[in-house]
Design a protein that fits this description.
The protein has 319 residues and is α+β, with helices and mostly antiparallel strands. The protein has 13 helices and twelve strands.
């Protein structure tokens, strides 16, 4: 009980953040931009931005079908890639078929196995977190120049790699939006990539998603009674957020799609697209994948549920 109370006590992790200045100063000029009187270590959440205008990104304002063909970088892409990107504004996701070659997929899988064997990075459950900090191979795949070009095009601004998560099996996670975990202000300034590292089927826990759901209002702490106070986080469990999303979907008429991917396929999705993991029916099967998240360089970055500013470690590319 005491441990749980301490975890919800905001000053306890503000003290922790005090010693992480080099990973937190990225937010300071953006706090100033939006008129916030915040220290680099201060608690931050959507409540701090109430009453402040949240400008929309270009393809939340303009339709990608009309705007992308006006961009020189788009016209430089192969025709098949161009056609894959046009539905971004309408659907909130795009699928890049066979973006990574079979050889590169195998290289990534071999590298993940080596990271585990060497002890540099280990599986925690079915996840290997932040392999980009231990592997140049995974870092270069996550920040692939052609992939970054497409991501920047869709977002209409410069994006930067933040996080990687390798999955050994399907997440089986209930439907959610990434925006409540990796949050930004203005809203909508994060994009995710899911990279298939082997074939997915209905038996090994594929992804599901709801096209068009990115246009729904962003769900934040106060929407499910989890705002907390000046000193304490809210007392709701994460399942309360998932229940809220379930209730929202029950009132809508979105189609639920399941992604049956081939190795090397890449799914890019909007920060507010509702998605999750299907049941993993055959426990003898793996479902290897690499998930990466990218923040906009000009956005305040934080974590809505924990009300913490985002710690950003420098990425070290090696030749």
């Amino acid at each position: 009980m005491l441990k749980q109370l301490i975890r919800k006590f905001k000053p306890s992790y503000e003290l922790y953040n005090f010693f992480k200045r080099d990973q937190l100063v990225h937010n300071l000029p953006k706090y100033k931009k939006f008129g916030l009187d915040k220290k680099y270590y201060s608690s931050i959440s959507s409540q701090d931005f109430i009453g402040i205008d949240s400008p929309l990104n270009i393809h939340d304002r303009l339709n990608s079908r009309d705007n992308l063909p006006t961009q020189p970088a788009f016209m430089d892409l192969p025709k098949r890639r161009q056609s894959e990107l046009l539905s971004w504004s309408d659907e909130g996701y795009v699928i890049l078929k066979r973006f990574f070659s079979a050889d590169r997929v195998q290289l990534i899988n071999d590298e993940v196995a080596q990271l585990d064997l060497s002890g540099k990075a280990k599986w925690v459950g079915n996840k290997m977190m932040f392999a980009i900090h231990y592997s140049n191979i995974i870092l270069k795949a996550s920040a692939d120049p052609e992939l970054m070009k497409i991501i920047n095009l869709l977002m209409g601004k410069r994006m930067e790699l933040f996080q990687s998560i390798n999955f050994l099996t399907g997440s089986e996670q209930r439907t959610h939006s990434d925006s409540v975990h990796m949050s930004t202000f203005p809203y909508g300034n994060i994009i995710a990539a899911w990279i298939a590292l082997e074939e997915t089927s209905i038996d090994n826990g594929p992804l599901h998603y709801y096209p068009g759901s990115h246009k729904l209002p962003y769900v934040v702490n106060q929407d499910y009674g989890n705002s907390g106070s000046r000193l304490f986080l809210g007392d709701k469990n994460y399942s309360a957020y998932e229940d809220k999303i379930s209730d929202i979907l029950s009132e809508q008429n979105f189609e639920r799609k399941i992604l049956l991917a081939q190795p090397g396929d890449v799914l890019l999705w909007h920060s507010n697209l509702l998605h999750g993991g299907e049941p993993h029916h055959d426990k003898n099967l793996t479902r290897k994948s690499l998930v990466t998240h990218y923040y906009a360089e000009d956005a305040v970055c934080f974590h809505e549920i924990s009300q913490r500013p985002t710690l950003k470690r420098k990425l070290d590319f090696q030749q």
